[in-house]
TrEMBL record:
This is Deoxyribose-phosphate aldolase. The lineage of its organism: Bacteria, Bacillati, Actinomycetota, Actinomycetes, Streptosporangiales. Its EC number is 4.1.2.4. It is an enzyme of class 4 (lyase). Belongs to the DeoC/FbaB aldolase family. DeoC type 2 subfamily. InterPro entries: Aldolase_TIM, DeoC, DeoC/FbaB/LacD_aldolase. It comes from the Bacteria.
Amino acid sequence: MSTVTTSFADVASSNVALRTFLHGLPGVDRVGADQRAAMLGTRSIKTTAKAEAIDLAIRMVDLTTLEGADTPGKVRAMCAKAVHPDPADPAVPKVAAVCVYPDLVAQAVGALAGSGVKVASVATAFPSGRSSLDVKVADTRLAVEAGADEIDMVIDRGAFLSGDYVKVFEEITAIKEACGEAHLKVILETGELATYDNVRRASWLAMLAGGDFIKTSTGKVQPAATFPVTMVMLEAVRDFLAATGRAVGVKPAGGIRTTKDAIKMLVLVNEVAGDRWLAPDLFRLGASSVLNDLLMQRQKMATGRYAGPDYFTLD
């Protein structure tokens, strides 16, 4: 076991020691981070690589519906699109996962059976996270028992910002245990964390508590998946792998709307974390709205023509 993991395990029961550990992480130069993210955002890829990048981005999408008006029919339609994003072109790859509320997991599981597309579910009183641990664990178990492959939980930002790191750590570990074999994505809600230093601390806290992915946002708070914040999180997973030997995924969610945005994210991943993360098992795009633009750009490259705005289904 690495020194970092051992040290963290030794202090996990002490909020003072946790604070010392997390605040001992290297600080983030905000100006430097913004400048580097802006510079990487100007990088371009060759036309010959663009088609591959588009297909890779499609395979990384978590197609999501998280509205109070969601219905079983809407979920089934979204699942059909996840498996065949463009029914007219069977060469278009499947997306990574479909993400729904816990009470609709069974519908998604049935619709996606045998497809290879994973079923993800938000839990833990999404999106606020304002509930008791018992309720959060029950919410998680409901989704897992219905067949969810992945759980997207939200951390208690109030506890984190108050410096109660032990509470956040213990909640993540309890939810991870309730997940069983399901993977756990830990949503930091970076738009509420205020500083890049807090994003780095929350990233490490989530990873050391057992998270399989760290995720920027619920999509309900702005700003969401900015390039600088995603860069800080990619640096965290890179450094965590070096320190512990365990690779953790990253999922930017919210605000990624165009193919250009998606490809910029892939460039960011490659330049900051490395090509190991250029795969759906370690990088996802929580951006349902970007899928249609990826499909339009893909068709344009194949045919030389853009499809009309109503050619693909609207989610």
